[in-house]
């Protein structure tokens, strides 16, 4: 994509994102497969991921590495009362909502595939902005357009997540104050705004997919520094 205008790059990324498997299964299915102590028994021995994980719920999660105006990175500590990764450090995120694009159940109808694909692609990017706003309390207008930096998958329970990079034009102290009024603040117990060095020290307490997201962020930084 070297030399391509930013708009063309973003359109190409959006087109690529729309081809990811975006599962609309409910939370009970996720808890009963990916979060089950017996999750490995649902896997099919095969190098093709689509075959290997065909019996898993595997909803595609999302996460955002958000840099503040004073060069800090936002990290949340998960509540001990949530079902997934209680007490862990995580980046803001969650998952896109199928109902946002009109998907209320599994669909086999192949009509208007192009239109549905475009709506799903848009929701991937709109959804991560919504998650950051709801979990941190920062206004959407303070965030840059998300840039997809890659997809990570946990070794434990094989849950995949798409990771995005964005900047916030608010400093870390103001974000800490906004967090107190965050819509989904109950999902976490504290917001940290940390340096890259401190984040490296905290990284072993990230869930596997978020650890992979951090690795993708470091790859992005290294590529920018060497360009």
From TrEMBL:
<keyword id="KW-0378">Hydrolase</keyword>
<keyword id="KW-0460">Magnesium</keyword>
<dbReference type="InterPro" id="IPR000086">
    <property type="entry name" value="NUDIX_hydrolase_dom"/>
</dbReference>
<protein>
    <recommendedName>
        <fullName>Nudix hydrolase domain-containing protein</fullName>
    </recommendedName>
</protein>
<dbReference type="InterPro" id="IPR055295">
    <property type="entry name" value="NUDT22/NUDT9-like"/>
</dbReference>
<dbReference type="GO" id="GO:0046872">
    <property type="term" value="F:metal ion binding"/>
</dbReference>
<dbReference type="GO" id="GO:0052751">
    <property type="term" value="F:GDP-mannose hydrolase activity"/>
</dbReference>
<feature type="domain" description="Nudix hydrolase">
    <location>
        <begin position="57"/>
        <end position="222"/>
    </location>
</feature>
<dbReference type="InterPro" id="IPR015797">
    <property type="entry name" value="NUDIX_hydrolase-like_dom_sf"/>
</dbReference>
<keyword id="KW-0479">Metal-binding</keyword>
């Amino acid at each position: 994509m070297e030399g391509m205008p930013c708009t063309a790059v973003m359109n190409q990324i959006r087109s690529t994102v729309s081809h990811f498997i975006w599962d609309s299964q409910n939370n009970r299915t996720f808890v009963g497969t990916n979060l089950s102590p017996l999750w490995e028994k649902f896997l099919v021995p095969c190098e093709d991921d689509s075959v290997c994980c065909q019996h898993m719920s595997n909803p595609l999660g999302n996460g955002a590495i958000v840099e503040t105006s004073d060069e800090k990175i936002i990290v949340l500590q998960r509540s001990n009362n949530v079902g997934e990764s209680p007490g862990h450090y995580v980046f803001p995120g969650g998952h896109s909502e199928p109902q946002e694009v009109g998907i209320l159940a599994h669909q086999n109808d192949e009509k208007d595939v192009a239109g549905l694909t475009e709506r799903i692609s848009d929701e991937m990017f709109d959804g991560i902005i919504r998650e950051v706003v709801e979990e941190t309390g920062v206004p959407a207008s303070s965030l840059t357009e998300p840039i997809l930096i890659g997809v990570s998958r946990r070794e434990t329970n094989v849950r995949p997540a798409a990771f995005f990079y964005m900047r916030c034009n608010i400093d870390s102290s103001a974000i800490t104050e906004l967090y107190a009024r965050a819509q989904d603040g109950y999902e976490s117990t504290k917001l940290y705004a940390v340096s890259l060095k401190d984040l490296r020290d905290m990284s072993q307490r990230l869930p596997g997919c978020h650890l992979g997201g951090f690795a993708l962020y470091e790859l992005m930084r290294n590529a920018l520094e060497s360009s």
